[in-house]
Amino acid sequence: MFRQTAFGIALSALVLASGLTTVPIPNNPSTNTSTRNKLLSLFSSQVAISTPTFKTRELEKSVFDEINRYRASKGLPKLTLNANITRQARIHSQNMAKGKTPFSHQGFERRVNAIPIRYSSAAENVAFNRGYSNPVDEAVTGWIKSPGHLKNLKGNYNLTGIGVATNNQGEVYLTQLFFRTSTLRRKFS
Q1: Radius of gyration for the alpha carbons in the chain, expressed in angstroms and rounded
Q2: Among 53, 67, 86, 108, which lies 20 to 30 A Cα-Cα from 161?
Q3: Domain named SCP: which ranges (predicted)?
Q4: Structural domains in the chain (count)
Q5: For 70, how many CA atoms within 13 A lie in the half-sphere containing its CB?
Q6: Residue 174 contacts residue 92 (beta carbons within 8 Å)
Q7: Rounded to whole angstroms, how far apart are CA atoms 129 and 6?
Q8: What residues have CB less than 8 Å from 174, skipping those under 6 apart?
Q9: pLDDT one-digit tens code per residue, 95-146
């Protein structure tokens, strides 16, 4: 049965900015080359009853749990949540939700370099959606169906951070950063 409310029918949207991965340059652990894929958009019709209110910290935990369940189902080691990485992911999601930065990977290298961790590789997945009762399921499902995002989800990473932010329009922005900690030792002169 189809119901229409006083708010009418709205378009629900899930938009994924294709997964961004950095590849280390041999013999130079601090220099990375970024690769970008094209923007992937998925749309579906859905009735919008009202603008939902989400608890972003709970959504972040839900993303973390879903990604680790997925990795475990594929025989991959679970990721460890890192507060410093989460802080940078959350700032990026907040900036996108507020319109301070476009929905993109813009500033990825700056975010990664702001985290005081020695790493050998890093990657990022971002998603945006509106109108879904479970924005985490929509984002994670979209990431799994997208080759670039899936590569990051299944990548040889051991640390992660997840940031979620919403705005008054009911838009939900999700950022997940992935890190492989470095075993390289820094030489001091």
Answers
A1: 17
A2: 53
A3: 65-178
A4: 1
A5: 18
A6: no
A7: 22
A8: 59, 63, 93, 125, 126, 127, 128, 135, 136, 139, 162, 163, 164
A9: 999 999 999 999 999 999 999 999 999 999 999 999 888 899 999 999 999 9
